[in-house]
Amino acid sequence: MQSLLRSLPRRRHHEFHRTLFDVASIKWVRDRAIDHAVEKEGNLQPLLNLKNLLKFEPSKSLPLSLIAQQRESLGIASRPVDFIRRYPSVFQEFFPGGIGIHPHVKLTPEILLLDAEEHFIYQSDDNKRAGADRLLKLLMLARINKIPLHIVERLKWDLGLPHDFTQTLVPEFPDYFQVTGGNGNRSDPHLELVCWSDELAVSVMEKKACEKDTPIAFPLQYSRGFEVDKKFKKWVDEWQKLPYVSPYENALHLPAKSDEADKWAVSVLHELLHLLIAKKTDRENVLLLGECLGLRARFKRALLQHPGIFYLSSKIGTHTVILREGYKRNLLIENHPLMDMRGKYIHLMNTIKEDKKTKGLQSKNTQQLKLAHASKGEGEEMPDGETEKGRDGESYDFSDSEVEEGSDDDYSDEDEDRSQMVSQVNARGDRVRTRRTPKYEAKRPLRSPNSLEGRNRRKTRNKAEVSRNTVMHGRRKIRGQSPGRLEFSRDRGRSNLDTKASVLK
Q: Which of 360, 410, 346 is nearest to 111 (CA)?
């Protein structure tokens, strides 16, 4: 077997080596960080499609029924009414003329401000030039020089082109490209290259190699938990040593199943994803462009055999191809101004959830403050004619009836509960408990603490308190609960029962 391998030419050797490597043995491992980067943009594109549709209407609004008819073209997966009501910070429903039928939809002021900021970025000269360069490099890939316009339409979101780029961007760069075909012609419209640019026909890999003066090798990043066996690692190391063929060269003459052809297809796919501002796109877009370039099968093979370069995410109901080196965990390494704008749109989409939490916390704090102010307040009338001067004065005035009703001899369990409630309210408001009565003793003649009448009154009061505590202790003892832990035991027992019931279910 070894002598047979030595007798084969170099190219045939690599082709035979590929047959020894089983692609099906590669076990893909999910990357949660990159999946999150894909998932957070799930409804962003259909939302912006609907935003653009409403913006260019003369009335800046549309009936909900007409939006439902264009659901597929907008890319809305759910019912349009549910989609619109899911983002009240972006869309508003209203009834024109005050009639409660045929609801219309318009944009909120917040989304209009972001749209104006995004429009300013699209209109800047730097962004126009960068977008034209990316589109020109796309036409120069594999020297195809012409791409069907419907494929470019599918890629305009990922390339960072305006939605009407054929009317705005293409006419401004007539020396770059032009639209041909269509308008009654037999051929479909195409975007065609006008002038080749040697300055732009340099790949990202070639630029990095020139800057670092190192051999061209693709950076590899594997998902956590991915097992790289010796056989696969050896194959990758030999594959990295193969000569690098520029993606702006046409290498269709290479044998389709050779390692050299595989590396050229990887370089084309790698450069394509680098042209995209998000460094990712839908797999169907990759395969359609690969079919146009004659590399559809090679693109499929590249995605399967190189999990360290490309990642395939199955989030948001589709398959997304991501360039691994473009991300550090779930964040883009090279951020684009339009990607910053998309981040602002996503924040606005989720603003309503944050507002609900904030609103709930504010209402809860407001209720606590109202309860606190109800029991205190400087120079404020209390419910039963009480007045409080404030924390510094520490003087409290009560009516005569309150003093008589508030005697220690008539102190009952109901008063005790009321006193506990007042103390809890005061604790919330950072106040000390309201003291009962400084003027209470002024209603009666002062007596010496050693007098006989004073001793008798204290004994009577102590007996009443002891008897009341004894009764309360007896009640708690009958119920099988220790004094001072009544409410805690009730709550703990109830939570345990609820937990057991949930487990049984």
A: 346
